[in-house]
Please model this.
Amino acid sequence: MAKKPSESTSEWRGVEAFNRLRAEDEEWLAEVFVSPPEFDMMIGPRSIIIFGDEGSGKTALCRALTGISTGEDGKPKRLLVEWGRPLPVLPVLKEGGDSQSVEVLLEDVLDRCALALLRHTCAYPQDFHEAGDLAKEAAVWFTRTFLQGDFEMRTRRFPGEFGDTASAILGDFAGRSVRDVLLPDAPSSLVIGELVETLRSIGLDGAWVLTDIPSLRDETDTRRQGDVLAAFLSALNQFEVDGFVYKMVVPSNLEHHLAEAGGIDRRRLDKYMLYWPHSKLIDIVNKHLVFATGGKVNSLEELCEAESLKEWLERCGGRIPGSWLKHVRPLVAAYGERASEGNFGPIDEDSWKEIRMRHLPNLELDVARGLVRVGGRVVDDIPDTPYKILRYLCERPGQVCTKKELYYRAYLGLESEPASFESTWDLTSSHSGLIDTAVWRLREAVEPDPKDPIFVITHRGKGVSLQKSVMRHRDG
Amino acid sequence: MKQGVKGLGKWLADDLGLEFNPFDLKYLDAGADPRLPDYLIGHESFEKIKGDWPAFVFAMAGGGKSAFRVRLARACRVGQEGRRVLPVVYKVPGPVNFADSPPRLEGHLKFLCWGMASELLLELASRPPRYLGLDLETRREVRLQLEANLPGELGYFLDKLEKTGDISSLVNRFDPTARHLLKLPEPPDIRPFCDAMREASGEMPREPGGPAARFQKLADLVRGPLGYEAIYLLVDGVDAHIEVIKDPHAGIDLIRALLKQTGAWTEKRIYAKYFLPPEFEVPIKKLSFLPTETRFVSIRWTTDMLVDMLQERLKIASGNMFGSFDAISNPELRRVEYELVNMAEESLPREVLLLAGQMLRLHVRQFGPSGKLRLADFNAIRDWYPHHSRGPHNPQ
Model:
């Protein structure tokens, strides 16, 4: 991704800037990118694996890493090799991961390196021509040895993309006679070392293998993916070569699979959990606002004057940039409508409350993992009794449940409310206070605005119900 | 990023007077650090493994196994105590690289031949008179064995030597830790060596032979006409594979054929030295077929040793100007190397080096490339480390 200055700082893009990031959006990513904490570690000379939740900005980070690898003149500083989306031939890789799986993956990495090298050479033939004979020989040897499949098929697009010089280069690669620089089964560290030296001879500072592993929905596939990756990241010899570096961005649900991978345990790769402090999240939103409004709105305060907006965003968005942007989006849309009528002032509190009621976050309960999520925020501080009530209400969405019912069935876990003569009957009626307190704590935990609840609704004289919730039961 | 790697290098050079970064995070892996041999400190256990006997070195990951291996290779390469010993570094490949399971000796010998030939080429290229002083027949034999046993074409490696004029390209390829050790010849020496090697091609037919035969011939050449007193096989990387990480017994199976051959090799002045994780210690010591002269060492690090390690690196990087971190710290921060050692997980050298390297990085990030280390830098690393432990992530 080459950085492009804005065509016009006054251009209005509106909610488009708040849509979920797609590959086609990459041209304006540079305008809105905010570097996460420890970005310097991510762009350093060491391999790194970065874990991130959905919406945490993994794809944007990948795009930024690509951008960092491009010089001011638009020329790559290093060979960028995109790999792992998806991981190759996953169905045939052995469950549990082993050296065989590692070999398959490594062959795939080297295949991608070979293709990337060919592509780069077609794009910058002069660097190849000016490299010494040995470097040319090594480059040809590498691509011919490790590019899988038919050479012509794999490179068929390059002449169209780069012109006649590409055809000449490809002809040279296909036809040049070369020695066995290394034997076919030479250790991967030797092969990678040879590649890096070749890259340096053609003006590149080594290679980055950029991996953006997608989330998989199926738990079994996720586990297998994790096992295979753990095996791959335990093959330490591929991390030994200076200048050949993995930059991996993976879903956070793979973290526990990979925690003991040899490469991570032995610090061959750095490990990092992508997180965003409050100040950075505000920065991300503000940059998007500037871009979206052509500079007319530069901050959340200029968008909406509601004092509780930031807290709402924090309680709905958590630490997930994607979630923050999702909840700002309707405000931007509303602002755009007002602006089209000549009203450029910030949205007032009352209007905001109306808008937010039409764009409420989801409340999710994952029973198997005991996980509660409100929008992008993981709620990890719900005490036991409120959790029990939440779970009970989630099983009966929209149904009004009395305090007695909540006390006996949710809190005590009874199958039904007891009769007055049964031993479990509460003579003191203290359940009312207990349930009131629990519901209050539940609201404090899950409601974006506990004073104005949207989930746990009180029906005067009747009980409480849960609105707009999703409950998941997951196996394993 | 204005406070990145370049800022760090500039700070270390301009403000602190260091010639290089002695805690470069790029080289946390000892086996990849070209400067490691320069600052290897004397560890009491080293004497137990360096002689003409088989040896086993046990240590946790990050606990100094590879550093010991590098140090031993260095001692061989510089001809310590006036001896000529050929070190052959053997990083054991994963199970899939062998035809049999568990691997037979022949499988290992193929890779050992590669290692021996690579080391031999390095040594001869760095000391051309050793090759040039041989008679023609022996030179041809050397060339033949190199051709038969190198992991690539000899002609290609010779071309690389000639192109660069020194052995750096081969060192980078075969063993980066050899960079500062092997005597780099003056440029004119490489060409006569390469010419002599090429001229020695002749018409000698390639002798058939499997890995065992080739290994024997190569070893005979090394200990015979080439005058080496012994060959040390430095066996490392056994735990660099997922199967072994999951089950240490798989690691024993992986090298069982080598272990069984250890005794026979000693009779031929080939001494295997194994660098293994601690889980291997009990099963290895139970093996009945190891020679009686085999030595066993478990590497342990005291606080003083780890502090020495940090200080030695600083000393080398400062050209012997600084003996402790106090020299590069503000007065508010004293004896910070002791604090870092105390903080490190399980007193592992790698963790200590990680802390030192990260502390420097955090300084530049927070204060820019200027000034000395501050108390705030130590506080920053103390906050940073728990969230970057080796285990599962601790949330920020």
Q: What stands out?
A: Chain A touches chain B through 58 residues (CB under 8 Å). The first strand of chain A starts at residue 47 and ends at 52.
